[in-house]
Amino acid sequence: MKHKVKGRKFKRDTAQRKALLKHLSEAIILHEKITTTTAKAKELSVHVEKLITVAKKDNLLAAKTIHGRLCDEASKKLLKDIAKRYEQRNGGYTRVIKIGERKGDVAKMSIIEFV
Predict the structure, then answer these.
(1) pTM exceeding the 0.85 threshold for the entire prediction
(2) Chain-centre distance of CA 38, in angstroms?
């Protein structure tokens, strides 16, 4: 039984999984729309929404937390632009749109973007 076990493993160890989510988070924050597999998009949505919720608090602890999890450019954009955009919104900052299958390995693909 998998009680209280959250998240997907993606057949990677912990360090690789954290690095994957970090780089995907940076990509979506910088570009505001990326194409990836559906499983990665769903997991990324949870990760990014937590980051935005922390960034909305707009205090020193929030800034240090965001800066520790993202690169400089992405953390600045998240704190100054994206968090301000969603001040009045209580969650649901991202949208996952399924676009079909990839030709090579027939993986289910999705677009993840900010609402």
Answers:
(1) yes
(2) 13
